[in-house]
Amino acid sequence: MKQTLMTLLAGALLTLGCTGPKNVLPQDAVDGLTLKDYDPVSVFKMEEHHPAAARFSAIDLHSHAYRRDEAGIREWVKILEENNIEKVIVHTGAYGEEFDRLYDLFTGISDKFELWCGFDMTKWDQPEFPACAVAELERCHAKGAGGVGELIDKGMGERVSCKVREPGLHFNDSKFDALFEKCAELGMPVSIHSGDPIWMYEPMDGHNDGLMNAKEWQIDLSTPGILDLDEVVNAFVECVERHPNTTFIACHLININHDYARLGDILDSHPNLWIDISARHQETCVTPRATKRFYEQYQDRILFGTDNDPVPEMYRDQWRILETEDEHFYLKEQSYHWPMQGIGLSDPVLRKIYHDNAIRLLSSRKR
Q1: Beta-strand relationship, 85-91 and 113-116
Q2: Are 52 and 335 in contact (CB under 8 A)?
Q3: To the nearest whole number, what is the mean pLDDT of the chain?
Q4: Average pLDDT of the residues in 340-365
Q5: Which residues lie below 8 Å from residue 203, measured CB to CB, with a gap of 6+?
Q6: Hey, how many other C-beta atoms are within 10 angstroms of the C-beta on 262?
Q7: Residues 196/293/83/363 CA torsion (nearest 10 deg)
Q8: How many Cβ atoms sit within 10 Å of the Cβ of residue 291?
Q9: Tell me, what CATH number does 266's domain have?
Q10: 3-class DSSP assignment, residue 140
Q11: Strands across the sheet with 273-276, in order?
Q12: How many helices and strands in the chain, by DSSP H and E?
């Protein structure tokens, strides 16, 4: 009797296997699926919204010189007009002849672009620094630089200029004091990128829920002299405190959108600090309710930015995430495997983040 039941059960299972779904992978194939090959597709049938342009005139406070020829820049201008973008701040990080060349190129084509310069770090380890760097900053300002950016410290200090050859020169170092004070005197806001999203500092293992993107941008904390995320954020905050008359913009929500309480405390304590939301929608829209509450609470301190290649699809992603309440969708270019969620900001908050806050910041400069 037992043998008969087993035979019938085996037959039933065989029948189910033959008539079941044809796209089921064998277990060994699932076990062997690599993370880079996992490409989920949403199955949810819900109403979708794809805004073709920003609901209100927008000012992009964080972009770069992604196009460096006349044809490319003119095409960029066309895309900006189609997306209701009034102005773009181009962070060049440049100085000297390179800044002059970029300034003449962009502003000679369209008044939609405002260019910001970098610090001249050429003599960072010599006695004449920072006097030479301050002089070059003044020259760039006279040329037309509206601010400074993007300065970057992901834990090793100021290395993005490729002039500083040793770790440890963080922006709270006294070597930068004269430069930041000159920025205050000239009315030049300073945009600083501190750290990276927390996943890049976490162990690259099966517990890291941002592993796919984290593996690409991982920060090796075993590197001698490197700061972890908390330490590099603390160094930035100390810099802001040292220069209360200088206007600072923290790029990418200081990369601590995983801890909105801490980010809020920093904003509350530092009235000379703004934050931009550039290139962090993938990190923020996975917690849409918390993000919406934070944006609403600090709606007067948040600036819109993109920081990505200025193609039409990139801009349309901005509007969908910020303006709609669409759920569980994937972007064409996506670094993580989690789905995106629309934040669905109200019109008054959108208007401030897209436009009014930028106008307030830019018009406060002494030129």
Answers
A1: parallel
A2: no
A3: 91
A4: 96
A5: none
A6: 13
A7: -80
A8: 23
A9: 3.20.20.140
A10: helix
A11: 148-153, 190-194, 248-250, 273-276, 302-303
A12: 14, 8
Residue 12 lies in a domain: no
Residue type, 44: F
* CA–CA separation, 156 and 150 (whole Å): 16
Q: Which domain holds residue 56?
A: 45-363
Q: Supply φ then ψ for residue 77, to 5 degrees.
A: -60, -40
CA 340 – CA 330 distance, rounded (Å): 6
pTM for this model (two decimals): 0.89
Residue pair 282/340 in contact (Cβ under 8 Å)? The answer is yes
Assigned domain for 89 exists: yes
146-168: per-residue pLDDT in tens?
999 999 999 999 988 899 988 99
First-residue to last-residue Cα distance in the chain: 95
Give the separation between CA 95 and CA 114, rounded to whole angstroms: 15
Q: Which phi and psi angles does 191 have, rounded to 5°?
A: -100, 120
CB 63 within 8 Å of CB 310: yes
What is each CA distance from 301 to 10, 220, 271, 294, 356, in whole angstroms? 66, 32, 9, 11, 10
Written as one letter, the residue type at 256 is I
Residue 14 lies in a domain: no
- Structural domain count, the chain: 1
How many other CB atoms sit within 10 Å of the CB of residue 160?
A: 17
In tens, the pLDDT along 178-211 reads 999 999 999 999 999 999 999 999 999 989 999 9
Nearest alpha carbon to residue 42 among 240, 258, 334: 334
Tell me, yes or no, whether 262 lies in a domain: yes
DSSP string, 32-85: T--GGG--------------SS-SS-EEEEEE-----SHHHHHHHHHHHHHTTE
